Amino acid sequence: MPHHLFRKGLAAALCAALCLMPTAHAYAAPARIKDIVQVEGIRENQLVGYGLVVGLDGTGDSLNNSPFTRQSLQSMLERLGVNTAGENVRTANVAAVMVTASLPPFAAQGSRMDVSVAALGDSDSLQGGTLLVTPLLGADGEVYAIAQGPVAINGFKAQGDAASIVSGVPTTGRISSGALIEREIGFELASQHTLRLSLRNPDLTTSRRIAMAVNDFIGAPTAVPEDPATVRLTLPHGFNGNIVDLLTDIEQLIVQTDQSAKIVIDENSGIIVMGKDVRVSAVAVAQSNLTVSIAENPEVVQPAPFSNGVTAVEPNTELNVTQTDTALQMINQTVSLQELVDGLNALGISPRDLIAILQAVKATGALQAEIEVL
Known about the structure:
Layout: H1 3-19, H2 24-27, E1 29-32, H3 33-36, E2 37-39, E3 45-54, H4 67-79, E4 94-103, E5 112-119, E6 130-137, E7 143-150, E8 152-153, E9 156-159, E10 164-167, E11 172-181, E12 194-199, H5 204-218, E13 223-227, E14 230-234, H6 243-250, E15 254-257, E16 262-266, E17 271-274, E18 279-280, E19 283-285, E20 288-296, E21 299-301, E22 312-314, E23 317-325, E24 329-331, E25 335-336, H7 337-346, H8 351-364, E26 367-368, E27 370-373
Parallel strand pairs: 16-27
Antiparallel strand pairs: 1-15, 2-12, 3-4, 3-6, 4-5, 5-11, 6-7, 7-11, 8-11, 9-10, 12-14, 13-14, 16-17, 18-25, 18-26, 19-24, 20-23, 21-22
Helix pairs in contact: 1-7
């Protein structure tokens, strides 16, 4: 692209950015309180267990390579009255698995939840298998649920004598409503007089706005912002209800959220994600592309007739270097980074070039944002 066209295109993009610059109020994103906070005590708990999947069609663990599967199988049979001590058990229809689940908050005894199953040994597939009774333990070592049922997988594996095909991951699966909750986690929410609201995206401004919205609605100093991630909620005197009623009343309140300026970059995939408040100060930018292409076209050379020579392969390498440069461009005023990137994209600059430009602008101090590289 000619330099004068590049300058005109970039100037037009920057002028559009300055003319369409939104106000500070337009940047605020309204959201309900229930969507931006978590209430203390209302949380999931992770459970884990070890079990056996049976009924596999020859795709289970190799007992010689998976001693834990052999031991588990023998222990299970002994509990059922079958003595296999000293016997050489040979079966390919059993697989050792790890079972994981998330215990929902306030889950009642006798209710059900989903569980995930993943092979632990060298099983090829869990297709058609059934998980046997598996206790699920919490971090305290107590059993909170029992899992059992047929395993549904999202992939498959098929093979013949000379070829095989695998779709998805056939060694992981899920059992819908496969665990029965045996123990409840005690937490009496209604009896609490003070709770903490934890922001999912900690921010001082958002924390203060939440407290102000709650206090304005209740008409009393009910909420206090303690830090960027916490707002303390106290049941006001004379309130007609308990803490559950208070949470129900305030969770629908709309708050203008705020966040710090940040750019997240994934250099492996060339992905750039930027926040709405990112700004670029006055800076000059020039960009150059260097493309190197190498092609190998070996040539076969035959010896002369009736000679003692041999056929040889002569290397033939084609090397091309292409370099395109852009003139040094001056950005004289603070503009929205989104508008700047849109202008550069319109001129055909790739995401990987944008990453390099953003990092260089950040190094000069002209980029008012934090860059996080994944």
